[in-house]
Amino acid sequence: MPTQLGPDEHLAALLSAGERLRDAAHRAGPAAPVPTCPAWDVRKLVLHTGMVHRWARANLRGEPANKTRHWQDEGAAVPDLLAWFADGVAALVETIRATPDDAKAMVFLKDAPPPRRFWARRQAHETTIHAADAVAAVLGRAPTVDDFPVDPAIAADGIDELLCGFITRGRNKLPLTRPMTIVVSAQDTGHAWTIVAKDNAPLATTIGAADRPDIQLTGTVAQLYLGLWNRGEEVIEQGDADFLSIWRKSIKVRWS
After folding, report:
1. 3-state secondary structure the chain
2. Sign of CA dihedral 156, 161, 164, 166
3. Which of 59, 63, 166, 172 has the most Cβ atoms closer than 10 angstroms to its Cβ?
4. pLDDT tens digits along 87-96
5. What's the predicted TM-score (pTM) here?
C-alpha cells in the first residue's frame, strides 16, 4: 500500500480539508444532522475529527494516545469548538513536519509507509472525508463532486489506501452468494484496481484491471473516491448484482 505522494502533498490536502470542514461546519451549524454519518450531528463530527487529530499527534510524539474521551470532553467544553478544531489541525501539521523520516510510531495498515508518511496520508484522507461529511450537513444530502471537488491525485491516493489497505485487513467481509471479481476504473485518470471477493472472506486487491470482471465500477476518480468511501452517489455500476448496495452496508471504515 505504498503511496506515490509525498508528505508535503498530503499535508497540503490536510490543511485544505481542515479549512473546508471548518467552513462547512460553520455554515451548517452544530446541531445540523450529517446525512453521510446518520448517528452524528455537526458538533459530533467536529469533536470526532479534532480528537483523531490529537490522537495521531500524540502517537507520533511518543505520548500516551489513549485519551480519546479526554480530548472529546476538552472540545465539548471550549467556548469556540471550531477554533479548537483549527488548533488541532495546525498542531498535527506542525508535528508531522517536525517528525524524522525514521521515527518509530504505530501504524495499522498492510505494507504501510513509515510513520511520518503514513500519518500524513491517513490524516489527509480522514480530514477530507469528514470535510465531505460537513458539506453533506450543509446540503442535507451526500455531496457530488461539483459540491465537493477533490484533486485527482489525492482521490486516487485515497482509493488506493481504502482498497489496498483498509479493506484487505479482514475486518470487512461481504455477504455474497458467489465469488466476484470487481474492477474499479477511473475514466479520467486511467487508474484501476481489481477486488476479488468471496462470501465472508477477506478481500484481496491488486492494481490494474482484470479481464471480464463480474462487476465494474466506473466514474471520475473523484466520484469513485467519494462513492467508495460511502460519501457520494455518482459511481456507475455495471454487472449482474447490486454490489454497491452490499458494499455500502458492509464496508465500515474505522478511524484506527
Report:
1. CCCCCCHHHHHHHHHHHHHHHHHHHHHHCCCCECCCCCCCEHHHHHHHHHHHHHHHHHHHHCCCCCCHHHHHHHHHHCCCHHHHHHHHHHHHHHHHHHCCCCCCCCCCCCCCCCHHHHHHHHHHHHHHHHHHHHHHHHHCCCCCCCCCCCCHHHHHHHHHHHHHHHHHHCCCCCCCCCCEEEEEEECCCCCEEEEEECCCCCCEEEECCCCCCCEEEEECHHHHHHHHCCCCCCCEEEECCCHHHHHHHHCCCCCC
2. negative
3. 166
4. 999 999 999 9
5. 0.95
Residue at 147: amino acid letter:
D
How far apart (Å, rounded) are the C-alpha atoms in residues 35 and 32? Answer: 9
pLDDT for 4 beyond 90: no
Euclidean distance between CA atoms 228 and 247, whole angstroms: 8
Which candidate, 120, 141, 143, 103, places its Cα nearest to that of 20? 143
What phi and psi values does residue 3 have, to the nearest 5 degrees? -95, 145
From CA 101, how far away is CA 120, in angstroms rounded? Answer: 12
Tell me the Ramachandran region of residue 249: left when phi exceeds 0, alpha when psi lies from -120 to 50, beta otherwise. alpha
CA distances (Å), origin 247, targets 197, 204, 242: 11, 14, 9
